[in-house]
Write the structure tokens for this entry.
Amino acid sequence: MLKNLKSLFIIEEEEAPKAAGSESIKKATPVAQASVAESKEGRKGQVSSKFMEVLLKAMEKNNLEGFDYLEYKKSLQSLAKMPMDEATRFKSAFAMAQTMGVNPEKLVKTAQHYIGALSKEEQQFERALAKQKEQQIGTKLGQINKAEQLIQQKAEQIKKLTQEIEQHQQQMEKAKTAVSAASVKIESTKNDFIASYNSLVQQIQQDIEKMKQYLG
């Protein structure tokens, strides 16, 4: 089932149809090849195969019985290479759906069901991300604060403690470097998830609008 979902929402670049209106996304560019400047906010979000699989598994877990939006999406995909315009393709796929006792309202409702499943996965991700921030950044920030206090204390002592002060300064700089690196990593991870989430939701929402437009 997961493989079938991937084929519906993920189309490799070399296999992506050139026709306008096709439901496709580009394969995520590997980080090592991306020429994107990073900052404390992390690099710009990219569609990640890892997060796409997580989100698609959430859809798979919440798959409804019978003919619903996903089956309709599959029908649309099977017609993608046919010489027909988008409206005809949506109506042709719906003609088959009607034989299964499906109406446009059900298609829209089930599509919204999957958006709801994705939204729950987003909330779960946000909770996990907050925990990672606390573990990876909160501890380091505490180390920085402690180092600053030690520096202030040692600065008031006589010259023989100068060497010890310098050691604490080095510890502080290392902690700052670790915080900066952790911040970039976590924000980049967040941005990848958001890009993946938005890509899926946008596709589904576009299908909903077209179903409303063409099938209503």
The chain has a mean pLDDT of 81. The radius of gyration is 25 Å. The helical segments are 2-9, 49-61, 69-78, 86-98, 104-155, 162-215.
